[in-house]
Amino acid sequence: MSARGSATLLVLVVLVATALVVSTGAVVLDGPTDPLTDEVALQPGDNPYTYLDEDGELAIDVTEDNPNLSAGGVNPNALTAENDLFYVVYDGNETAEAWIEHDSQAVTFVVDGEPIESDEEPLLLTPEDERVAVGVEVDTRVVDVVPGDRLMDDITVHARPAEPEAIPQDEGGSDGDGEDDDGEDGDDDGDSDPK
Q1: Which of 2, 40, 3 is nearest to 19 (CA)?
Q2: Angle (nearest 5°) at CA 188 between 183 and 191
Q3: In this structure, are residues 41 and 35 in contact, taking their beta carbons and an 8 Å threshold?
Q4: Does 26 map to a domain?
Q5: Apex CA 103: angle with CA 102 and CA 109, to 5°?
Q6: What is the CATH number of the domain that holds 61?
Q7: Contacting residues for 168 by C-beta, under 8 A, at least 6 apart
Q8: What is the count of structural domains for the chain?
């Protein structure tokens, strides 16, 4: 086995199954998407690894079957990353949470370098987020694989309205305790005159 592992190693043919609970709306996009709800969709990244399959579902394919690749797989005993693998597109009016589940120890889906694989630490989608890049890190050093092995078959993308405690509060301003930012009642603009 070559250390470079140019043979097929990773088959990430991922047809996205969904389990979503998000309110209504409409995602307006320029380009093909895999709509999950009226507000959430998945869109392939600008790379040869993602595309919409014949059923309109997002496919992540790093195999020799992918017509966009000249070789398939990732290197064995290596860390491989793609920052903008695909996008989660959001057109809701409230903050929502999204995360990805799968069964591979070697694969981690990330946003800004942080995993989004748990409902306890999900990606927060806000009305300002039109699309959020989801990356992937594939670490074949942590599993025993040989060229041609499949590391993962499917992923499940979950989305739901955000739990209130997960929604970031505005910095500065009141935290609802009746005190201003200096810990005392009153205002912080330096003017002690009442209005």
Answers
A1: 40
A2: 130
A3: yes
A4: no
A5: 45
A6: 2.60.40
A7: 124
A8: 1
pLDDT of residue 13: 36
Total-model pTM: 0.71
Phi first, then psi: give them for residue 134, nearest 5 degrees: -110, 125
Residue 186 lies in a domain: no
Greater confidence (104 vs 70) lies with 104
Residue 111 confidence (pLDDT): 97
Give a yes or no: residue 178 inside a domain. no
Residue 92 included in any domain: yes
The whole-number average pLDDT for the span 4-13 is: 36
Strand partners, 115: 110
d(CA 70, CA 58): 20
Give residue 134's domain range.
Answer: 34-161
Name the DSSP letter for residue 128. Answer: T
* Residue 62 vs residues 69, 151, 162, 188, 190: alpha-carbon distances, Å: 7, 11, 33, 56, 60
